[in-house]
Design brief:
Low-confidence stretches: 1-6, 30-43, 106-120
Helix content: over 70%
């Protein structure tokens, strides 16, 4: 029975890989997969306006976010200092302000929550049903994020050409891709909440803005980093995010970690170092500026992503909101912040003009955002059904397959020592997952 299951799993993964490969090849087009040559990179850098430098673009983005967050902060301080919510009245404005600043009262919904918990209890599934559900969740996660990963590299790294002899142009605005991802994710979350009964919402709405901001920044760094480092390097950096997560866990949640967890974190660092040391195309471009920029942006991605996960974990523990409510709340503020920033920069017009010149970019953005939104649903559902350990194992497999797909489609070269470094990183992630499972099984 185990041999049959393992054979079926291998066949499923093989079919999935072939399907994703065919889809991505069809979407990106064979004529577009040639990487930009070194001479073209240098000429493109010279042609770039100074506003396209990543640090300038980051400052402009932060200024846009500040035009929303600073007034919001002032309003919250004024409401609290003036005791506005204690004044008589129950108009729509006061209700909205209360929901935004204080949230809903928890005791008011006690009986409703109890009834909801009773109604949400489902009968236990059989072993076969659990296996089918696990295959469904694994397939959904792999399918969504493999296409998302390959298209992410296609959009940010390679030129869009009108003809074979055309030099083409790169799409430079990473924030627009973040906006497209978030607005579709918000729509998917709202539609899902309409069909799935939710717990009463208690958290103040402004609490979502913190993780929304850090989520925007981590996503922006993730896309922007692809201008300086290869996709395999970016994927391995994601696998190594356990290190900043542990640091943020100590700072934000005051958690303690075992010697084994520090050991596996060291394994991840060593594996990543081996890959970077031997990979020939780990960096796009040459020189110290490119190297330093890539490292700074990757470190920013890891730091912001670590804060996001720890802050959301705190919100879950404090207010017990559903995953869909978290998804909707975070993406709402993400859409608000990025849309204001893009509008102030005139980036919507630039993106629309780029789509008119290169219609395939619009298709890529739509598929990229769709797979990202669907993948988020699979993430929340998989964790709720099978726990974080199973989810970690699935996503670790996804990382390995994503690197393999990227090497096949975009011709990345990986040397033997670099492949060994990849194996060390994934082995450390699997060991951490196994260690977590052992700790839970002993309780």
């Amino acid at each position: 029975m185990q041999r049959l299951n393992s054979t079926s799993a291998m066949r499923s993964i093989t079919v999935l890989m072939i399907t994703v490969l065919v889809l991505v090849k069809g979407l990106s087009g064979q004529e577009h997969v040639d990487q930009v040559k070194e001479s073209e990179i240098k000429s493109q850098e010279l042609e770039k306006p100074w506003t396209d430098f990543w640090l300038i673009r980051l400052i402009m983005n932060l200024f846009g976010y500040a035009t929303v967050m600073v007034p919001g902060f002032i309003i919250i301080v004024y409401v609290r200092m003036s005791n506005y919510l204690d004044k008589p009245g129950s108009g729509y404005i006061q209700r909205f302000v209360r929901l935004f600043v204080e949230g809903s009262a928890s005791d008011k919904f006690g009986s409703e929550r109890l009834n909801h918990d009773v109604l949400s209890k489902q009968p236990e599934r059989s072993f076969c049903q659990q296996c089918v559900l696990l295959v469904f969740c694994s397939g959904g996660l792999l399918f969504s994020y493999l296409i998302w990963g390959v298209l992410q590299e296609r959009v940010m790294v390679y030129r869009y050409k009108d003809a074979d002899n055309d030099a083409g142009e790169l799409f430079a605005n990473s924030q627009f891709i973040v906006f497209a991802n978030r607005i579709l994710a918000l729509a998917v979350a709202c539609i899902a909440m309409f069909f799935v009964k939710q717990k009463p919402h208690e958290a103040p709405l402004y609490k979502y803005s913190y993780s929304s901001f850090s989520n925007i920044m981590s996503s922006w760094c993730q896309y922007e980093a692809l201008k300086f480092v290869s996709f395999p390097v970016q994927v391995l950096a994601k696998a190594s995010k356990v290190i900043p997560v542990m640091l943020m866990g100590k700072l934000v949640s005051h958690r303690s970690y075992s010697a084994f967890e520090y050991f596996t974190a060291l394994m991840i660092s060593v594996g990543l170092f081996l890959f970077l040391l031997t990979s020939e195309d780990s960096l796009h471009g040459t020189g110290k500026v490119t190297t330093v920029s890539g490292i700074i942006i990757l470190v920013g991605y890891l730091a912001f992503d670590a804060f996001t996960s720890n802050w959301q974990d705190q919100l879950f523990n404090t207010y017990r909101m559903s995953s869909l409510q978290m998804m909707a709340g975070v993406n709402f503020f993400s859409v608000l912040l990025t849309s204001v920033s893009l509008f102030e920069q005139g980036a919507f017009q630039e993106a629309a003009a780029f789509m008119r010149r290169h219609p395939k970019f619009g298709l890529h953005t739509l598929v990229l955002s769709s797979t990202s939104a669907i993948g988020q649903l699979f993430i929340y559902y998989t964790i709720s059904e099978f726990g974080p350990v199973t989810f970690t194992i699935i996503m670790t497999i996804r990382m390995g397959l994503a690197i393999l797909l990227s090497c096949i489609i975009y011709n990345h070269s990986v040397m033997l020592v670099g492949a060994g470094g990849i194996c060390v990183v994934f082995a450390a992630v699997f060991l951490r997952a196994y260690h977590s499972w052992r700790k839970k099984s002993r309780k």
